[in-house]
Q: What sequence folds into this?
């Protein structure tokens, strides 16, 4: 993975999730549950990611019935996103993983996915 372009504190991510559109509230609530087991001041490394590559990946992943919560919503947002790159960070709380995508200035949440952390299986 590339060098981080920045970091976000867990509390800052919680604030971004709180401002997310109401239609995505069920996803945000699950994402906050992952964050709840982490230290509020913990820093999440953020990396740049190629939007076209993510669209390809999530087009495949969302075809499965067991796709992670938020995958379809993320795919729709990425398809509307106008920049070539998006910022991406991830955290795990020992069973679930939260992956976030933000605009490059880290001020707006583009989407997030919550799922089982398969690295622990």
A:
């Amino acid at each position: 993975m590339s060098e981080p372009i920045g970091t976000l504190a867990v509390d800052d991510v919680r604030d971004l999730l709180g401002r997310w559109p109401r239609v995505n509230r069920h996803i945000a609530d699950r994402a906050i549950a992952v964050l709840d087991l982490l230290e509020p001041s913990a820093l999440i490394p953020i990396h740049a990611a190629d939007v076209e590559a993510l669209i390809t990946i999530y087009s495949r992943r969302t075809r499965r019935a067991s796709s992670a919560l938020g995958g379809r919503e993320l795919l729709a947002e990425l398809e509307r996103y106008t920049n070539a790159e998006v910022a991406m960070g991830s955290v795990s709380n020992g069973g679930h993983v939260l992956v976030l995508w933000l605009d490059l200035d880290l001020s707006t949440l583009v989407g997030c996915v919550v799922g089982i952390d398969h690295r622990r299986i």
The helical segments are 10-18, 25-35, 51-61, 71-80. The radius of gyration is 13 Å. The chain has one domain: 6-120. The first helix runs from residue 10 to 18.
